[in-house]
Design brief:
10 strands; Hepatocyte Growth Factor; two-stranded antiparallel sheet; globular; mainly beta; eight-stranded antiparallel sheet; single chain
Amino acid sequence: MALAQSDGSFECSNSSSAAFEATFTSLGCYNDSSVSILQAAKLSTIAMTPSYCANWCGERGYAYGGINFGTQCFCDNEPNFANANEIDEARCNPCVTEPESKCGGGYMLVYDSRY
C-alpha cells in the first residue's frame, strides 16, 4: 500500500493505475538538501521506480517527477533548481525493486514526463 500526500491530504493506493503510461527523460541528479525542486505533490512507497513516479505524477497532471530518498516521488509543473546543484548521476542510488534504475538515495533524480 502506498501513502500519498497531496496538498496536505492523504490517500492510499495499492498501485499506480495502468491507464496512464508516461514516457520520461532524465534531467539529472541533484543535491537538494531543502527538497525544493518539486513541491506540488508527494508519494512514498517502497516499490518506487522512475516509471511508477512518472505515471503517478502524470495521472495528476504534473509534467515533472523526481525521486528522492529511494522511496519518495515528488511532482510539479515546473522544477525549481535555485537551491540545487547537479551532481554525477552515478551518485543517485539504484531503486530497491528495480536496481537497473536510479531512485535518488540522498539526492533527487528529476524526470521530465512530457515526452
